[in-house]
Design goal:
Largest sheet of chain B: 7 strands, mixed
Strand order of the largest sheet of chain B: 26-30-33-37-36-35-34
CATH architecture of the largest domain in chain B: 2-Layer Sandwich
Number of strands of chain B: 41
Shape of chain A: rod-shaped
Helix content of chain A: 40-55%
Radius of gyration of chain B: 41 Å
CATH class of the largest domain in chain B: Alpha Beta
Number of domains of chain B: 6
Order of helices and strands of chain A: HHHHHHEEHEEHEEHEEEHEHHH
Structural class of chain B: alpha+beta
Strand content of chain A: 15-25%
Strand order of the largest sheet of chain A: 1-5-6-10-9-8-7
Shape of chain B: elongated
Oligomer: heterodimer
Largest interface: A-B, 76 and 89 residues
Number of strands of chain A: 10
Number of helices of chain A: 13
Structural class of chain A: alpha+beta
Number of helices of chain B: 20
CATH superfamily of the largest domain in chain B: Bira Bifunctional Protein, Domain 2
CATH superfamily of the largest domain in chain A: Bira Bifunctional Protein, Domain 2
Helix content of chain B: 25-40%
């Protein structure tokens, strides 16, 4: 097949027309293939150059190459036009309703008592406390006698116990026996928290249950003072409830601490003015005190060399205050509608 | 404890407002729970006696009461129906005032009503709006109601059990005196007493009675007590009865010593015997009930029979009555443990017993008898004739040495010795000071101070804990145990939550008879029993967490929340020997599948994967299961969970019969493991190995088997035959279907071959594959496709 300049002109006219007519980027690509592809018109024409006489070949070759450059320029320019047009309407073409949000991946929910204990543990671990555990089935020595609560002591009235059929065993009424167990098995310095379930024969109502949860704290070292206890309580309470809360320390009485105190935080609802949720603007959070010298002795610690403080808080109470739970019974009911709020 | 501010002012000048007073008392350890302030200001309301009642013509709601004020009789229309002829009622006469409301004569259906009869709420004397306030019989008609109910503020205090000395107005006055540094005005008590009559009282059980004071008065006239006394008793929550009885209560509320008054003439032989009750001895008590006593109980008796349960309640027989003229006053100090035991055995807690069981000082009783005798003489016209004071072991208060430096060492604040001494003196301690030491002797009315820390507490609470600085203990903790603890619990919880399982906390107390047998097979057959359960169906400690979880699933299904997925990480209680209870930590998971069989099988596989995932995160890479049977579980869908030492738990579908006990439709898959075994093995520290230098070869193997062949067994054979070159076997899929025929199952495995020192040839792998295929065919009659 022979090629003449007229053919090349025809290709040029045809190319201009077809490039201009390509209405989208796919059509334009189709045009490019038809013109410049392996079987394209211009490619065919270039291939035909070889059959031309030598004198014409140079001129026709130059013309053909120029035409190739022109076509490429036209294609690129048209491509830019088409892309610009496409980008102009991109929002309409590829619109997605971004407010139709799929539910997050379903996950299980941890129990509020776990969550509050986690917070308590995190706060005390920053202060270098370890977690100690003790049995829930206790004996009278650890639960009562070693804590200065002999038989017929009035404090037993508030801690009516469940007795277990094994000899002299009962369900612990508080986490304080862990104090004794830990002191007997460890040398000072001691710095522990001891969380866990405790049991009392209390009738069930929104703020009482026969099974509830406490966290005990014990620090024994040289030269521990009430001011250390006060500072610890403040750090704990503000870490848990917020730095703007005020803390009130009042006198109290426990057989196993001397002096004994109770701590309250200012109510988060009324800000301390007094409301239905609090008592005169205050929410009691824990009882505490300096470990009684006899209790230290019962734990095998010499009170002439060491002193210590202890505190005990209701974990469920802390969870109720922090998570606004108004009925203690919800904690053991395991209604998934409740659990899934945490 | 109810404290009347009016009464308190007899003993101490309160110079601050009531809110400040309450705050300071609270800070010092005497929590003020409530402040009752009368909020109705009334004037011109008098006591009237109802003379007659008749209906108001034309009304079904109202009636006409004819009331007398002593001088005059008036007719008043009232809407209340709780009245009876003879009742004393508050009568707002025409011209009287309730706050801003003037009371006038008003007409009801044409009948004039001269003023009105008042309810408790209208007068601000209580919350009762339902009817007219019925006053005490002793109220005198015509008397101004303000005499009976003076304006007062009542503090409700919570007194700690070690401070029975504060269960009275004088005690609180002392606290206020110490806190605000104002002097105490003690009531003037005549100490003139008749001669001691040693034959009047005999103590046969001295271990139960530390001191016994008695006083006999003759010529007494029993009558209502004066209104000022009645008003104070009422403010303190005690009902007035008669002058003699009221005086005993008054003295108790003033100084803290419970008392009792006997009609002396009713005491056989005029003698008091303090003894233990005879076994089975009965006594008719003041509250109208007859009680049977045991030989543990202390009684106050005459020569014949018990006339009172010591320190708890008086007897009806010798009670003071209208006709009584000779009164024997008792103020004793009873042994607290004995009182507590008896009160508990009788199920009777009285004002007196709750004081005695806290341990009262024997120093109180003589002053109390003096005070009461003086009041009886004054108000009842009696004359003290005989006296007795049996007090074999007088109180000796300790002298407690407190180094001044110890105060700072305990409190963390330096209290100047002079201030410390002043605080203690204000609390009525006697103080001797010498070179850095305070020698403190507690006042005789307090038994709670015996060691230096007690004295430091007194200083601290009055000094004010708000003045103690806030510090943290020095940074001297050891690092010893920090290495040991890895929070396996928290890791397990996160993994389980990630598998869409919610955390539950169920009750440790279960029913020994109704709890279905299900749980980890290692648990003992019998429960740890509670000797004194509160309710019958909570009479044992759980051996497994599963029954609680199943109950929770059923509970949720009833709340229209089927398909609950719960786990619990908690303690079981396993009886080891008669006096040792093991508390293994258990992890249990229970998943409700509301629909039937096929979904349950898939859930069960998922649950196995969950258990393996937890174990994988905590300890070891893979978990083995062994087909098993266990009570409470599906006979064909249960496996033991194994570690190298043997079974550590159970996983399976809950037996439909067990599920039926919970009334839970659908199916449940469940697992329970010994958590510490599951987590055992310590934290796995990854150890890097060189990457394979030569390509490995992967081959799939599909095996069709029949019957209950466990794939675990297949894997074992494959592993054995594959040798060292077979590095990894994973279970890929399981298929059961019509193409295979009934009872057949196809299992697909993926096998990874690898050599350390060369590229495996196809021939080598083919030989191994063939060896495995032949082995499987032979051992399991399996059809194998490579």
């Amino acid at each position: 097949m022979s090629v003449n300049v007229g053919d090349l002109d025809a290709i040029a006219v045809d190319a201009r027309q077809r490039i201009g007519a390509a209405s989208d980027e796919a059509a334009l690509e189709q045009v490019r293939v038809e013109l410049l592809g392996k079987k394209g018109a211009l490619t065919g024409a270039l291939r035909g150059l070889g059959s031309l006489p030598a004198d014409q070949r140079a001129a026709a070759g130059a013309r053909a190459n120029a035409l190739k450059g022109e076509i490429e320029t036209m294609l690129a320019s048209r491509a830019r036009e088409l892309q610009a047009a496409r980008l102009q309407t991109l929002g309409d073409q590829e619109w997605i309703d971004m407010t139709f949000v799929p539910s997050p991946v379903r996950r299980g929910h941890l129990h509020p008592l776990t969550l509050i204990l986690r917070e308590v543990k995190a706060i005390f671990s920053r202060l270098g406390y370890e977690v100690a555990l003790g049995p829930q089935v206790e004996d009278e020595f650890h639960n009562f006698e070693a804590l200065n609560i002999p038989q017929e002591h009035p404090a037993r009235d508030t801690m009516d116990s469940f007795y277990v059929d094994a000899d002299h065993l009962l369900l612990r009424t508080h986490t304080s026996p862990v104090q004794i167990r830990y002191m007997l098995s460890h040398e000072p310095p001691i710095r522990i928290i001891a969380p866990g379930a405790v049991y009392r024969r209390d009738a069930t109502d929104p703020s009482h249950a026969s099974q509830f949860y406490q966290v005990e704290g014990l620090v024994v070292d040289r030269d521990i003072r009430l001011s250390d206890l006060k500072g610890t309580i403040e750090y704990f309470a503000r870490s848990l409830f917020g730095p703007d809360r005020r803390i009130r320390i009042v006198g109290d009485h426990f057989p196993f601490t001397e002096p004994s105190i109770a701590a309250a935080v200012s109510c988060g609802i009324c800000g301390g003015a007094g409301c239905r949720s609090c008592k005169g603007g205050w929410l009691e959070i824990l009882g505490a005190g300096m470990v009684h010298p006899q209790v230290l002795r019962n734990g095998g610690v010499d009170p002439d060399h060491y002193s210590g403080f202890a505190f005990g808080a209701g974990l469920d109470r802390l969870a109720m205050l922090k998570y606004n739970v108004t009925d203690l019974r919800l904690f053991l009911e395991n209604d998934v509608r409740f659990l899934k709020q945490f | 404890m109810l404290i009347s501010l009016n009464w308190l002012k007899d003993y101490v000048d309160v110079q601050v407002d009531v809110a400040t007073l309450a705050e300071r008392l609270t800070l010092a350890g005497n929590e003020v729970n409530r402040i009752h302030e009368q909020d109705v200001d009334f004037e011109g309301v008098v006591v009237a006696e109802v003379k007659s009642l008749r209906p108001l013509p034309g009304s079904t709601k109202n009636q006409i009461a004819s009331v007398s004020t002593g001088q005059s009789v008036a007719e008043v229309v009232t809407g209340a129906w709780n009245l009876a002829v003879g009742d004393r009622v508050p009568y707002a006469v025409p011209g009287s005032r309730l706050n801003d409301r003037r009371i006038e004569t008003k007409s009801f259906l044409g009948v004039p009503s001269a003023g009105m009869l008042c309810s408790a709420i209208e007068l601000g004397l209580g919350d009762d709006a339902a009817g007219i306030l019925i006053l005490d019989e002793g109220a005198t008609a015509g008397e101004d109601l303000r005499q009976l109910y003076p304006r007062d503020t009542v503090l409700e205090l919570e007194i700690k059990s070690n401070r029975p000395d504060l269960l009275c107005h004088l005690g609180i006055a002392r606290e206020i005196g110490a806190i605000f540094n104002v002097p105490l005005k003690e009531p003037g008590i005549s100490k003139v007493r008749p001669a001691d009559a040693s034959d009047l009282v005999r103590i046969e059980a001295p271990d139960g009675c530390r001191r016994f004071n008695g006083r006999l008065l003759t010529g007494v006239t029993v009558a209502p007590s004066p209104s000022w006394m009645q008003a104070r008793l009422r403010a303190a929550g005690v009902r007035p009865i008669s002058n003699v009885v009221d005086i005993t209560n008054y003295v108790m509320l003033e100084a803290g010593q419970p008392m009792h008054a006997f009609d002396y003439q009713r005491l056989k032989d005029g003698r008091i015997v303090v003894r233990r009750a005879r076994e089975g001895e009965e006594i008719a008590c003041l509250d109208g009930k007859t009680r049977r006593l045991t030989s543990h109980d202390m009684v106050v008796a005459d020569t014949e029979r018990a006339q009172g349960v010591a320190g708890i309640i008086g007897g009806a027989e010798s009670a003071v009555q209208k006709e009584t003229t000779e009164v024997f006053l008792e103020a004793a100090t009873w042994e607290p443990r004995s009182i507590r035991r008896t009160a508990r055995a009788l199920g009777l807690r009285t004002e007196a017993s709750s004081r005695f069981e806290k341990g009262l000082s024997p120093a109180l009783s003589l002053a109390a008898v003096d005070r009461a005798a003086g009041l009886v003489a004054e108000l009842g016209g009696g004359k003290p004739t005989r006296s007795t004071d049996v007090y074999p072991g007088p109180l000796k208060q300790p002298r407690i040495e407190v180094g001044v430096d110890r105060i700072a060492r305990v409190l963390g604040v330096t209290v100047q010795p002079a201030e410390a001494a002043s605080i203690l003196e204000r609390l009525h301690f006697s103080i001797a000071r010498s070179d850095g030491v305070l020698r403190a002797t507690p006042p005789d009315f307090r038994l709670d101070c015996t060691i230096p820390e007690d004295v430091v507490e007194e200083i601290g609470r009055v000094y004010g804990y708000d003045r103690v600085p806030s510090t943290l203990p020095g940074e001297r903790s050891t690092v010893r145990d920090l290495y040991e603890r890895r929070d396996a619990d928290e890791i397990a919880r996160e993994v389980l939550a990630g598998r869409e399982i919610d955390e539950a906390v169920t009750n440790s107390l279960v029913s020994s008879s109704e709890t279905p047998e299900i749980g980890i097979p290692a648990r003992p057959a019998s429960f740890v029993r509670i000797d004194n359960p509160m309710v019958e169906n909570r009479d044992a400690l759980r051996g497994s967490l599963l029954p609680g979880l199943l109950e929770a699933l059923a509970f949720n299904a009833r709340q229209d929340q089927p398909g609950a997925r719960l786990f619990e990480l908690g303690g079981g209680f396993w009886k080891k020997t008669t006096d040792v209870v093991d508390e293994p930590r258990l992890l249990a998971i229970a998943i409700h599948v509301p629909l039937g069989g096929k979904e349950a099988a898939a859930e069960l596989r998922g649950l196995q994967a969950t258990v393996a995932t937890v174990r994988n995160r905590l300890a070891v890479a893979s978990t083995d299961f062994r087909q098993a049977e266990a009570t409470g579980f599906h006979p064909g869908r249960t496996a033991e969970i194994l570690d190298v030492g043997g079974p550590i738990g159970i996983v399976g579908e809950v037996h439909p019969a067990t599920l039926a006990r919970f009334d839970l439709p659908g199916r449940v898959v469940a697992a329970e493991v010994l958590f510490d075994r599951l987590a055992a093995g310590g934290e796995v520290t990854p150890q890097a190995r060189p990457l394979p230098r030569f390509p490995g070869v992967r081959r799939d193997l599909t095996i069709v088997i029949r019957g209950k062949t466990a794939s675990n067994d297949l894997v074992q054979v494959i592993r054995q035959l594959g040798g060292y070159t077979l590095r990894e076997i994973s279970m890929v899929s399981e298929y059961q279907g019509p193409q295979l025929g009934a009872g057949a199952r196809s299992l697909s495995f993926r096998l990874q071959y690898q050599a350390d020192d060369r590229t495996l040839t196809n021939e080598e792998v083919a030989t191994l594959q063939q060896r495995i295929i032949d082995g499987l065919k032979q051992r399991f009659a399996a059809e194998v496709r490579s």
